User: What shape does this take?
Amino acid sequence: MKKTSLLTLALSAFFVGIVPVSVHAEPVLKAAENDFAFTLSAQNKSDLKRVEDYLNALPPLRGKFTQQTDDRPDVLKGDILLWRPGRLKITYTQPVGDFIVADGKMIYQWDSQLHQQSQTSLDKTLAGVILRKNLSFAGDDVTVIHVDHPSENELEIALRSATDPNAGTMTLVFDDQPLVFKGWRVLDAQNLVTTVDLTDIKTDVNLSKSDFVFHNPDFGLGTRRQ
Assistant: This one.
Protein backbone atom coordinates (compact mmCIF):
# COMPACT_ATOMS: atom_id res chain seq x y z
CA MET A 1 0.00 0.00 0.00
CA LYS A 2 1.35 3.45 -0.85
CA LYS A 3 2.54 5.69 1.92
CA THR A 4 0.13 8.38 0.83
CA SER A 5 -2.69 6.06 1.87
CA LEU A 6 -0.98 5.65 5.23
CA LEU A 7 -0.84 9.41 5.63
CA THR A 8 -4.53 9.70 4.82
CA LEU A 9 -5.26 7.29 7.65
CA ALA A 10 -2.88 9.18 9.92
CA LEU A 11 -4.63 12.48 9.29
CA SER A 12 -8.08 10.94 9.70
CA ALA A 13 -7.03 10.03 13.24
CA PHE A 14 -7.54 13.63 14.31
CA PHE A 15 -9.28 15.65 11.62
CA VAL A 16 -12.87 14.48 11.43
CA GLY A 17 -14.55 17.53 9.90
CA ILE A 18 -17.28 19.77 11.21
CA VAL A 19 -18.90 22.90 9.86
CA PRO A 20 -18.60 25.85 12.26
CA VAL A 21 -21.67 27.66 13.56
CA SER A 22 -22.08 31.16 14.91
CA VAL A 23 -20.27 31.72 18.20
CA HIS A 24 -23.43 33.42 19.38
CA ALA A 25 -25.56 30.30 18.99
CA GLU A 26 -27.26 29.23 22.19
CA PRO A 27 -25.54 26.01 23.38
CA VAL A 28 -27.89 23.08 23.83
CA LEU A 29 -26.56 19.67 24.85
CA LYS A 30 -28.06 17.25 22.38
CA ALA A 31 -28.23 13.51 22.29
CA ALA A 32 -27.78 11.99 18.85
CA GLU A 33 -30.73 11.35 16.60
CA ASN A 34 -31.85 8.64 14.19
CA ASP A 35 -29.13 5.98 13.80
CA PHE A 36 -27.12 7.63 16.56
CA ALA A 37 -29.98 7.67 19.06
CA PHE A 38 -28.69 8.14 22.61
CA THR A 39 -30.26 9.66 25.69
CA LEU A 40 -27.98 11.38 28.17
CA SER A 41 -28.50 10.23 31.73
CA ALA A 42 -27.73 12.28 34.83
CA GLN A 43 -24.50 10.27 35.21
CA ASN A 44 -23.59 10.94 31.58
CA LYS A 45 -24.03 14.68 32.10
CA SER A 46 -21.93 14.50 35.25
CA ASP A 47 -19.16 12.69 33.37
CA LEU A 48 -19.26 15.25 30.55
CA LYS A 49 -18.96 18.11 33.04
CA ARG A 50 -15.98 16.41 34.73
CA VAL A 51 -14.22 16.02 31.38
CA GLU A 52 -14.96 19.62 30.38
CA ASP A 53 -13.48 20.87 33.66
CA TYR A 54 -10.48 18.57 33.32
CA LEU A 55 -9.64 19.58 29.75
CA ASN A 56 -10.22 23.29 30.38
CA ALA A 57 -7.69 23.10 33.23
CA LEU A 58 -5.22 20.86 31.37
CA PRO A 59 -1.69 22.30 31.51
CA PRO A 60 0.70 22.14 28.53
CA LEU A 61 1.82 18.58 27.93
CA ARG A 62 4.42 16.62 26.03
CA GLY A 63 4.29 12.90 25.32
CA LYS A 64 4.52 10.07 22.86
CA PHE A 65 1.87 8.18 20.93
CA THR A 66 1.24 5.03 18.98
CA GLN A 67 -1.31 4.86 16.19
CA GLN A 68 -2.87 1.87 14.48
CA THR A 69 -5.66 1.40 11.96
CA ASP A 70 -7.76 -1.74 12.12
CA ASP A 71 -7.04 -2.95 8.57
CA ARG A 72 -3.24 -2.44 8.73
CA PRO A 73 -0.43 -4.16 10.63
CA ASP A 74 1.61 -0.94 10.74
CA VAL A 75 2.03 0.84 14.06
CA LEU A 76 2.95 4.49 13.69
CA LYS A 77 4.78 6.25 16.50
CA GLY A 78 5.67 9.80 17.28
CA ASP A 79 5.65 12.77 19.65
CA ILE A 80 2.81 15.04 20.68
CA LEU A 81 2.73 18.55 22.13
CA LEU A 82 -0.58 19.95 23.38
CA TRP A 83 -1.15 23.44 24.71
CA ARG A 84 -4.76 24.45 25.16
CA PRO A 85 -6.41 26.41 23.85
CA GLY A 86 -5.74 25.88 20.19
CA ARG A 87 -2.22 24.50 19.91
CA LEU A 88 -1.20 21.00 18.95
CA LYS A 89 1.79 19.39 17.26
CA ILE A 90 1.96 15.76 16.14
CA THR A 91 5.26 14.57 14.68
CA TYR A 92 5.54 11.08 13.23
CA THR A 93 8.80 9.25 13.87
CA GLN A 94 11.16 8.82 10.94
CA PRO A 95 11.16 7.46 8.33
CA VAL A 96 7.54 8.64 8.01
CA GLY A 97 8.49 12.31 8.37
CA ASP A 98 4.92 13.66 8.33
CA PHE A 99 3.68 16.15 10.88
CA ILE A 100 0.60 18.13 11.90
CA VAL A 101 0.56 21.56 13.56
CA ALA A 102 -2.32 23.60 14.98
CA ASP A 103 -1.35 27.20 15.78
CA GLY A 104 -4.59 28.33 17.40
CA LYS A 105 -6.41 29.23 14.18
CA MET A 106 -5.33 26.80 11.48
CA ILE A 107 -4.25 23.16 11.26
CA TYR A 108 -1.38 22.44 8.87
CA GLN A 109 -0.45 19.00 7.56
CA TRP A 110 2.79 18.02 5.85
CA ASP A 111 3.13 15.01 3.53
CA SER A 112 6.85 14.24 3.43
CA GLN A 113 6.56 11.92 0.42
CA LEU A 114 4.60 14.28 -1.80
CA HIS A 115 6.33 17.34 -0.30
CA GLN A 116 2.92 18.97 0.01
CA GLN A 117 1.34 21.19 2.61
CA SER A 118 -2.39 21.36 3.29
CA GLN A 119 -4.36 23.27 5.88
CA THR A 120 -7.84 23.89 7.19
CA SER A 121 -9.45 26.09 9.80
CA LEU A 122 -9.27 24.65 13.31
CA ASP A 123 -13.00 25.30 13.68
CA LYS A 124 -13.76 22.86 10.86
CA THR A 125 -12.53 19.79 12.74
CA LEU A 126 -13.52 17.85 15.83
CA ALA A 127 -9.95 18.48 16.96
CA GLY A 128 -11.00 22.12 17.13
CA VAL A 129 -13.80 21.23 19.54
CA ILE A 130 -11.46 19.76 22.15
CA LEU A 131 -8.81 22.44 21.58
CA ARG A 132 -11.14 25.41 21.82
CA LYS A 133 -11.12 27.86 24.70
CA ASN A 134 -13.87 27.23 27.25
CA LEU A 135 -14.48 23.74 25.89
CA SER A 136 -18.07 22.58 26.13
CA PHE A 137 -19.84 19.56 24.72
CA ALA A 138 -23.03 21.64 24.75
CA GLY A 139 -22.90 23.17 21.29
CA ASP A 140 -24.74 23.17 18.00
CA ASP A 141 -21.70 21.94 16.05
CA VAL A 142 -21.04 18.72 18.01
CA THR A 143 -23.23 15.87 19.20
CA VAL A 144 -22.43 13.47 22.01
CA ILE A 145 -23.38 10.02 20.76
CA HIS A 146 -22.08 7.88 23.60
CA VAL A 147 -20.70 8.08 27.13
CA ASP A 148 -19.37 4.79 28.41
CA HIS A 149 -17.36 3.19 31.21
CA PRO A 150 -15.76 0.10 29.56
CA SER A 151 -14.38 -0.70 33.01
CA GLU A 152 -14.51 0.83 36.46
CA ASN A 153 -11.43 2.93 35.74
CA GLU A 154 -12.11 3.89 32.11
CA LEU A 155 -14.28 6.58 30.55
CA GLU A 156 -15.03 7.12 26.85
CA ILE A 157 -16.93 9.96 25.18
CA ALA A 158 -17.92 9.60 21.51
CA LEU A 159 -18.60 12.69 19.39
CA ARG A 160 -19.71 13.43 15.86
CA SER A 161 -20.39 16.52 13.82
CA ALA A 162 -23.94 17.75 14.28
CA THR A 163 -23.92 19.28 10.80
CA ASP A 164 -22.25 16.38 8.95
CA PRO A 165 -23.03 13.15 10.82
CA ASN A 166 -21.63 10.99 8.02
CA ALA A 167 -18.13 12.49 8.34
CA GLY A 168 -17.18 10.06 11.11
CA THR A 169 -16.89 9.95 14.88
CA MET A 170 -14.19 10.64 17.45
CA THR A 171 -14.08 8.85 20.80
CA LEU A 172 -12.04 10.47 23.57
CA VAL A 173 -10.48 7.94 25.94
CA PHE A 174 -9.66 8.61 29.59
CA ASP A 175 -8.44 6.76 32.61
CA ASP A 176 -10.84 7.49 35.44
CA GLN A 177 -10.31 7.97 39.16
CA PRO A 178 -8.27 10.10 38.65
CA LEU A 179 -9.20 11.48 35.24
CA VAL A 180 -6.31 11.29 32.73
CA PHE A 181 -6.47 11.82 28.95
CA LYS A 182 -5.16 8.63 27.32
CA GLY A 183 -5.91 9.06 23.61
CA TRP A 184 -8.66 8.88 21.03
CA ARG A 185 -10.27 6.61 18.48
CA VAL A 186 -11.68 7.69 15.12
CA LEU A 187 -14.22 5.93 12.91
CA ASP A 188 -13.95 7.64 9.53
CA ALA A 189 -16.37 7.85 6.62
CA GLN A 190 -14.84 4.67 5.14
CA ASN A 191 -15.63 2.76 8.37
CA LEU A 192 -11.95 2.45 9.26
CA VAL A 193 -11.08 2.69 12.94
CA THR A 194 -7.83 4.42 13.88
CA THR A 195 -6.67 4.26 17.51
CA VAL A 196 -4.18 6.67 19.05
CA ASP A 197 -2.76 5.83 22.48
CA LEU A 198 -0.85 8.44 24.47
CA THR A 199 2.12 7.40 26.64
CA ASP A 200 4.89 8.99 28.67
CA ILE A 201 2.81 12.11 29.22
CA LYS A 202 4.52 14.95 31.11
CA THR A 203 2.70 18.10 32.16
CA ASP A 204 5.60 19.84 33.94
CA VAL A 205 6.84 21.27 30.63
CA ASN A 206 7.48 24.73 29.23
CA LEU A 207 6.17 25.27 25.71
CA SER A 208 6.20 28.40 23.57
CA LYS A 209 4.16 29.66 20.65
CA SER A 210 7.16 29.04 18.40
CA ASP A 211 6.74 25.30 19.00
CA PHE A 212 3.47 25.49 17.06
CA VAL A 213 4.50 27.43 13.97
CA PHE A 214 4.33 25.59 10.66
CA HIS A 215 7.66 25.49 8.81
CA ASN A 216 7.77 24.01 5.32
CA PRO A 217 10.73 21.57 5.37
CA ASP A 218 11.35 22.27 1.67
CA PHE A 219 11.57 26.04 2.08
CA GLY A 220 14.78 27.34 0.56
CA LEU A 221 15.66 24.11 -1.24
CA GLY A 222 16.81 24.71 -4.81
CA THR A 223 15.47 21.39 -6.03
CA ARG A 224 12.71 19.13 -4.82
CA ARG A 225 13.89 16.10 -2.92
CA GLN A 226 13.19 12.73 -4.47
Q: What stands out?
A: The chain is about 15% helix and 35% strand. Helices lie at 3-12, 42-56, 126-131.
